[in-house]
User: Fold this.
Amino acid sequence: MSNDFIRSLPGHERDLRANWFYRINVDPILFFLLSAVVVYGLIVLYSAVGQSDALFQAQLIRLMLAFTALIVAAQLPPQLYIRWAPIVYLLGLGLLVLVLLVGVTVKGSQRWLDIPGLIRFQPSELMKIAVPMAVAWYFHSRPLPPSFKDVCVALAIVAIPGGLIIMQPDLGTGILVAGAGLAVVLLAGLPWRWILYALLAFAAAAPGLWYTLQDYQRQRILTLFDPESDPLGAGWNIIQSTTAIGSGGLFGKGLLQGTQSHLEFLPEARTDFIIAVVGEELGLVGVLGLLVLYLMLIGRGLYMAANAESTFGRLLSGALILTFFVYVFVNIAMVSGLLPVVGVPLPLVSYGGTSAITLMASFGILMAVRMHKAW
Amino acid sequence: MVGLALKDPNREKQLFASRALALFVIILGLAALLVLRFVQLQIWEHEAYQTRSDQNRIQIQPLPPPRGLIFDRNGELLADNRDTSSLSLVTERIDNLAATLERLSRLVGVTPADISEFENRLRRKRRPFEPVVLRPALNEDEIALLAVNRHQFSGVEVTTELIRNYPYGELFAHAVGSVRRITESDLSKLDPVTYSATKFVGKRGVEKFYERSLHGEVGYQQVETDAHGRIRQVLDISPPVAGQNISLQLDSRLQIAATAALGDRRGAVVAMDPRSGGLLALVSHPGYDPNLFITGMSSEQYGKMSHSLYKPLFNRAINGQYAPGSTFKPVVGLAAIVERVVTWEDTIEDNGFFKLPNQDRIYRDWTWTVNNSGGQGTVDLHRAIYRSSNVFFYDMATRMPVERLVSFARQFGIGKNLSFDIADASVGLMPDPIWKRGYKGEVWYPGDSINMGIGQGDVLVTPMQMAVVASTLANRGAMVRPRMLLSSDAPLPEIDPPAPLPRVEGPSPQDWENMVDAMEDVVHRGNKGFRGNGTAWFYIGQDISYRMAGKSGTAQVIEIPQGEEYDADLIEDFNKKHAWFIAFAPADDPVIALAVLVENGGGGSKIAAPIARQVLDAYLLPQLAAR
Assistant:
């Protein structure tokens, strides 16, 4: 309350405007933390790609694109996001249906839309932002905490795209997209009691869900409990990644010195399993450093979300930040053998462009919501 | 609650703040869980992982299962496995690959072809530290040389593996099939774990059909290796499970006899037990040595084989499709009886040619080609079979609707693959007006029916299908599926038992007996002059000691286009007619039925019948002598 008052004073406003960052709607603290994670990631990646300049440069270009996406997203007024939220959501739904009808099949799942000669992209990536945005839009004009009816509508908004993505089949992304939408419901003030009931219902239904999983998905879950049972197949990754991490010890073997990753025992070292390279080469200290950076980033994000001016802004920013944490958690837990192997990259560190661009754009939205005044 | 359903910005903001705080606490809790896990791995269990990583040393190596053995019905080995040593490189352990290759080629003679093959294999997806074959099939001297110089090389290994071996070489190439080295395109279809140690996969015949059972289950061992990649100790082993052994219906003595009877002619012999459908012999000549595909051959050798005009890789017994010629006549005759367009007593006058009313085209009898006077005189169905009268069957074919003849003939399996376990067999063709309109865009002419009456025109059959026709006649209408498998130690997953085949419907038991009598006369009716003898009597019937029923056929060849690359003699040779003979014996209680085809062999009775007789002799005479 008092903060709002101080910020609304003309003098303070002038201070803000004087700052170069504020002029382009960028939160300097968040920007600094993001840059720190990216730089940290690039250092590790340089080792993980085997010091290949070509791969390293490709990643540099992708990250520059991602930062551009952030700056652009931050310039758009929040009103625009509200107005476009339902349209983007419906468009995304249409694309998901299209994927199921005419999508390109890669490794057994139809995830890609291919416009020959132009682009090839995964509409499910768009839904990672569009779904929480649509739920936030729905709650924006309704009283909170939400009524039972509103919660049901919100769940439908989440379940439809979630189901379409799982049908591709891409269970991992489907759950993440649904999770982002559910985060909004959670932040909107869903009574804790209901959350408890939902968890109990899920626990009760779990044995039934087991039978709806595909064989390879079950295999991954079983492998988690006993990786040695399938040492040539799914267990290989976990055995190798825990060996890499465990052998790193407190301080690690030193950058570029990881034997597991450099002798190519560790699969996917530069993409999904890059935290194992951090663990092996920089040790527990290196992992903790990265984790602390992530937590600061998340703390700052939640703080900004809590101080956003509108319900829409708060809910959307909060959900995007929570999703970001879910990526971090799922990736690290999977590589260290706490969760089954699903294809989730380590945010802003893993090699690859699509997820970095989506994430940076979502941080741009966060800034737009916070930095744009007077709406 | 309903009454309070108004927006309250302050309350909402506070609600959010408290939620965000609660969630951040949960986030910290989860992060703590991750930290705990890393502390466990990196501090508490660090030493265990350190050792594991240091020795690096703990590797998991897949172990290939020995492939199941294949036996004939008497327990003779048709396919087994033997040891072979090859020189392999672990490129991860080699600093200078070019220099190592250079030194190795001086030591044991590595050809540029070996090196380019090696580079191909190197490009394929593989596990780290997996040895890649540079030179297969090392001999004893080379193994010794490499062992002596072993200390000079790092990452160079002599690996011993089991490879497929076909002791009979060419003899069973087409019957049993063969395995081939797994190619890039196979990899996408095979289960990567099951095949992680396997280098060969069944590509043809029995080896392909029963691949799943023959392959077995992969095993693995956890080994500790030294810095040169050599195994220091085996920590854990889960042995592979050998593939299933299977026994086939084939009788290797009969296979040898059939191959010898065919000699160097191009053609096929398919012999089966009409009671079970078991394939006793399946010969296609020329063949090839399947062992060459395993130990490797030069591309020149392979090119010669695959481009040869004589097509040694082509399995004529199941994939060669030919007009059946006169061997089709028993089927047409029975169809005419069933359709009641003729009785066993009816006769026609065969003047040596047949004409449709109002048409000029003359359809001749075959006698014109051997004897300057055409025609067989007065002919009933019985005589039309043993004299193989064309005119009689031209007439029969015009007397019934073509659809009736076609649907009767299809009951014998023409146009279908009835086999139990020969997935690659061709289906042949039983044409009808609908097919002709669709495929050739033409209407069905009466002449098409006339040609069909003597097994010409567009009718196509494989030798295996004619063996099925022979065994159906032997069984007096009961159908059996041709099959390779005799027995296995355990039930095989490939087998999804097909429905038993129905009997051929229509002919009465007496009709079948009459037809068999006529076919016996083809072989046994003799000393009655040119127009009184069975067509094959002169060639095989004079000294036969058991009752045999048969039917000869001489099929026209679709002329091959004249090309500059073939010389004139060869063209003439390839334009000769195909010789057929189908037979079964003993006629009243048959234990063997067969079909013989000789490509461009000429007359069926003269060329194919003696081959059939030799095969039947080889099978029956020892049995008869034992009795």
Summary: The CA atoms of residues 298 and 325 of chain A lie 7 Å apart. Chain A has two domains: 27-75+229-375, 85-212. The beta strands of chain A are 104-106, 109-115, 119-121. The first helix of chain A runs from residue 2 to 7.
